[in-house]
From TrEMBL, chains A, B:
Domain of life: Bacteria
A Pfam family of this chain: FdtA
Xref: InterPro entries: QdtA_cupin_dom, RmlC-like_jellyroll, RmlC_Cupin_sf
Protein name: FdtA/QdtA family cupin domain-containing protein
SUPFAM superfamilies: RmlC-like cupins
Sugar 3,4-ketoisomerase QdtA cupin domain residues: 4-131
Species per Swiss-Prot/TrEMBL record: Hymenobacter segetis
Length: 135, 135
């Protein structure tokens, strides 16, 4: 079972022409991308996330601005990741309770291993602890 | 054969909490996404693109900033699209010669129907006209 970790995507280009980063199936992302979403115009005062999953794996990328992601595992391990490079992603496994806080104008791109299914979300912290401690 | 057209993705949220837009397979994007890339820090003086494809279809989204996309078909039809909403994408078919110009801080997200293959690019305008006029 993979734990939260940063993924460095290729960054091709230079300051004179700009940069491009690429994801193709079966390369740096350890799952098949079934859903893609992006979040934007999130006020700095808002904390998003606050859930874990049963199965869904995700990669979060700050394609613009800065995102501070806090992950917590059921054994109490807490990590804080500051995403601020458009070529760096954070792998978030299903068993990580996670919260995100966004800088003004941040755009978060998320690659997910499954289509949306509310049943896959664990939105109670107590449930999260119980479910993932027992595995 | 589909021509260039705008796609409006769902935009969920409100100003107090921010917004999210989503792509799942087989919904608004008329192909299976095999490659995903994003471009950033492109100087305003740079024009990107200047090619067509044999097969690859794409959807371009300005998830941050503004992108001006010019498409030209082999019959001479020219269209100019101004992308400036993170929930609006532009479908670019293989038979559209296209160029893009970016605002300062624009981030372009591209969904593509095929993995990267240089042989699929038509980088000569003359070849583009010949190849696509004959189809």
């Amino acid at each position: 079972m993979l734990n939260p970790h940063l993924i460095e995507f290729p960054k091709m280009g230079n300051p004179e022409i700009g940069y491009i980063s690429v994801v193709e199936q079966n390369t740096l992302v350890p799952f098949e991308v079934k859903r893609l979403f992006w979040t934007y115009y999130t006020p700095e005062s808002i904390v998003r996330g606050r859930h874990a999953h049963h199965k869904t794996e995700q990669v979060l990328i700050a394609v613009a601005g800065r995102i501070t992601v806090t992950t917590e595992l059921s054994d109490g391990t807490i990590q804080i990741f500051r995403l601020e490079n458009p070529n760096v992603g954070l792998y978030v496994p299903p068993h990580a309770w996670h919260t995100m806080q966004y800088s003004h104008a941040a755009v978060q791109l998320v690659l997910a291993s499954d289509v949306y299914n509310e049943d896959d979300y664990i939105r109670s912290y107590t449930d999260f602890k119980e479910i993932w401690q027992s595995k």
